Every structure is written in C-alpha cells, then in structure tokens.
Amino acid sequence: MRVLFFWFNLNCPARMNIGVSVLAAELKKAGHEAGVVYLNEKVGRRFDPGGIISECKEFGPDLFALSFGSNHFKYAAELIRELKGLFPATKVICGGLHATLKPEEVISVPGVDYLCIGEGDGVFAEFVSRLEKGGDIGGMKSFWIRTESGVIRNTMEAPPAITAQTMLDVDVVDHRAIIMENRGIFETIAGRGCPNRCTFCYNHALRCAYARHTGASEKDVNYFRLRSVGNLIDELKMVLSKYGDIIKLISFADDAFNYDKRWLSEFVEAYRKNINLPYTANILLDKVDEKIADGLFRSGCSLARVGLESGSEEIRSKVLKKPFSAADVYRAFRILAGHHVNTRVYLMIGLPGERCEDMLSTFELVARLKADSARLCVFYPLPGTEIYDYCARNNLIGRSGWDNFDTISILKWPEETGIFLKKAVAIFDWIQNMYLRSGISPTYEKLVGEAMRMSAGEWESDETRKWIAETSRECFERFRSDGHEVYFRPFPESPYTAFLYNRKRKIPIVNID
User: Fold this and answer.
1) Is the pTM here over 0.85, yes or no?
2) Are 349 and 421 within 8 A, CB to CB?
3) What's the confidence (pLDDT) of residue 403?
4) Do 5 and 116 meet the contact criterion of CB atoms below 8 Å apart?
C-alpha cells in the first residue's frame, strides 16, 4: 500500500517530525511504500494546496496520512478538502497531538475517514496492512473509523514500550537540507513523556488521556519511557554514517533527559566512546545533582535546557504547577555552573494573571542566573490541557487562530499590558542586559525606557522595527569588542533565542563560540 504523509511544519524553523520518521520506517518494514510531503517554507514546500496536488498525483497514494498539532489544524482541514475534491476514493487518516487531544473536532472535518489517537508506532503499520488486505479494522485499538452508520470510537492502546524503538527513516525527506538549515543540528529523542504534571504542557494532557482510555490511574500509566542506550547509540551511528560530514550537534528533544540516573550514567560512557559530539538536551531542574552535572559535562553537553518559564514563583507554583521552588532554581544553577555545564532557559510570558512586573521578573531571573541562552515564547493554551480549561472557564481567550508560540497572545489583555507584552517579546535581550548589573546596563536601561514610552502607533511602525534591529547590532558589536558579557539574538530565522556572548566556557556553544 502506498501511504503519503503530510508533515506540517509551517511558520516555524525546519524540524524533524520524529513520529512520522518512525512510522515511515515501520511501514517500509511491513512491505508498504511511504512518501512525505514536507510543508515548511524554508526547506520543504510552502502551503499551496494546488502545488501539493501535483506531488500527490506523482506518488499515487492509497492513503493520505496527516499529522499535525493544534497550530496547524486549520491548514490540515483546508488541505483535506482539496484532497478529497481531487481524490475522492483515497482515504484520509489524521493523527498527532491535536487528533489525540481533540478527536471529536478532527473527526468532524468532512473528508476524514480515520483517526489514529495516541502513539502510532507498533499499530499503524498493522492498520495499513489490514486496509490493504480488506481485513477487520473495526475493533483496532487506537483508531476511530468512520462508517456509513456512524463513527466507531475505539480506545487507545497503552503507551508503547520504546526500549527497542524503530530507527528513524532519514531518507523519506531531505534530512540533509533540514540539518543544514539548522546549522548542523540533528534532532532525535532518547525517551518519551515526562514525570511532571505542568498545567500548560501536552504531556500531562496525554497522560490523562491514556488513563481514561486504559482504565489505569494517572499515576499508574507507563507514560515516561526511555530507549535502551544501545538502541539510541545504534541510531546515532546510522545517522552519522549518512550525514556525519555536516552534523555539528546532536539535539535530544525529549523532556526529561536526566530523570533516570542509572540510564544517564550508562549513556554518558557509551556516548563518549561511540559518538563524542557536542549535544544538547532538556533536563529536569529539580533532578539536578553533582553526579548528573558531572556526567553532562564529561559527555560533552553543550547546552542543558531547562524549562523555567516564569520568574514569578507564584505563577510557577500556582498557575503552571512547576515542581520546583526558587531555592531549587538557584541550587541547580550553582551545581551546573560548578561543573561547567552551559545552560539555556525556556521562558514563557503572557500567562493568565501575569502582570508587567511579572514579565520583567522573568528576564531579571535569567540575568541573575547568568544563563548562557534564553528561548522565549508567548503563552498559548493548548486544547486539552488543564490551563486551557482554566482560560476557557474564566473567559480569558479573546481570539482564535495561531501559527506559532513566538509572537501572538490569544488571551484578552488590557491595552497597556497587551502592548507591553509585544514590546517585551521584541526586546527581551535588551531587558536581560539591563538586569545584568554590569557596565552595559545603563545603556540598555535607557533603550528599554525609550521603547516602553512609545505609543502603540509608534511601536508598530517600520521605522521602530528598523531602529530595534540597527541598535541591537550596533550595541552588541561595541560591547562585545570591549569584552563585556552581553545577550544578543544572532539568528534571523530564530529571533526569540538569545545567547550570552563573551562568557568563558569549558565546552563551547556550537555556532556561537
């Protein structure tokens, strides 16, 4: 059977879809053919249903498979309408995060024949094989099936074991182009799930969904899982055999890289021996200790990424339900710094109940911690999460339509707070420099003050955007040449990531130092 995936990565930096890569590999092992239309403006193709259709005709699919998040749902619905108009006999299946958390919304889209809810590896290839042979699919767990008499709504399978996860298919799209667009960074995962229950995160929502479908209690769902170290290392060896000439950095995209200390200890030795490239990973701040920090450093961790989110402890604990205190934050950063582990903090502003001073406290904390990098996003309530329900109950959502996490708040804000939020997104590196309390701080304090005094009309002008870009570059080059530590956003394609320059590091940050 010929299955054509649509890999939605619009209005975002080019990234791998690890789930689609695994499913494509499993389909091929089962004797099927798999193709991918990669929807990305930089590396794949832009969203142009008319142009996409020609690629569909060339492949000749028996099944269209669309995987998307909430931000791409509107594009998926539009594409399905076009596909069904031209290929009425070809079935359409949808999967991914949005289909799992909001299945009724997705199955209601005209033209959707099937849903895959939950994780598809281990079950999707079997579903396709049964379709091809005319077998019974009506009772297959993890699938919803539209029939003439209505929709069959099956429960999800339990989370699959991933100890021996199928290796990624890195030929199904042009991964060389993706790696080069990402400046030599290759992304994969070491595990799935997260033990934490943050209100804004899809992980908690998925854990709850698995509990509902399997009848297990939430705490008994085997949601956090790790690949074996050998399985992971074998995949990295395979990838390096194909793209080793351009890969500078391995990025582990899973959420809890340091949760299992024994696994991490085994990984450290195997990675040093077999791979020995700089890497970056997401770590749980409350699980940091001396042994973990030492292992991260010895194995070449170029950036340990931490989900800090807010500088306000009240917002972290009461709104986001992050499992750590301010004391935990400072303790973890002292340990990481003591072992020369570079850090990146993930920040989120525009949270429910957040005030302007709370947003400022977030950037002030970055400066106090001397984080080596900061990645900013604007809060968006993901459907299916606890905080989405809170926002909906309290009538906080003011608009719909969203493409990324970087620039748009869909919450209702007083006019003054709304314009402050936009300004903070545009000049957050200036604000962090203001709070460094160093020789550069007075300059940035003056610039921040000037920006904050602008009216909404002045702020939205092309002249102001040009002033920000030129002033940022001029101040950065001057202070950098003078030897000052200074935050700066170097990559136009990723304008919400800032790095601390002129900091002495034992392990360089790839593409920066």
Assistant:
1) yes
2) yes
3) 66
4) no
